[in-house]
Every structure is written in C-alpha cells, then in structure tokens.
Amino acid sequence: MTIFIWVLQGLLAAMFLMAAVGKLTGSSMQRGVFDHLRLPQWFRIVTGLVELSGAALLVLGYWNETYIVPGSLILGVTAIGGMLAHIRVKDGFKDTSMIVLLGILAFILLYLVK
Question: Distance (Å, rounded) from C-alpha 24 to C-alpha 65?
Fold first, then answer.
C-alpha cells in the first residue's frame, strides 16, 4: 500500500504543481480559463499559490508523512472550488472531468494516509 500512496502522492503533486506554475506565470490558457469562469485575475494568483502550497506539502510528505494530510486536504478542497466554478458557468463534463478526478484522488490519498 505504501508504494500506491507514494505514486498517488507524486501524481497529485506533479499535476497541481503544473497547474500552479501555469497560473502563477500568467499563461494565456489560464488567463482565458479564469475569464471564462468569470473570476478575477488576482484570484488566479491566489489559486496558484494555494495549489503550489498543497503540492509542496505532498512533496515534503515523502520525508515526513504528517505533511500528506494537510497537503491532500488543501488540494481536495481546492478541487471542490474548481468544480463549483465550472458548474456555476454550466461547463460540461469534458471541461470539468480533470478537476473532478484530481479531487477524488486527493480525498482517496487523505483516506489512505489517515
């Protein structure tokens, strides 16, 4: 089970780290997504910082397991916020599926570690 937790932890950290870097660097795709979601651009920066902190906690969790719980909780709650933002603008499952999957994986990791 430990190897599965490590793989899940690494997958979540990598995915949210990539998303955070895109948001923090102001990629045109991320700017467009936040415009589509009718969210202000300053919230893109806040979201990127939250995702970066959650991913960093998961990486630190390789050395100290106590960091996995807050990291996965931060990313799971962030994913719920992303799902709600997509639902608010009536996006289809195609646009929402990745954040739903990542949120489920974050809560599975939380369950396995606790």
Answer: 27
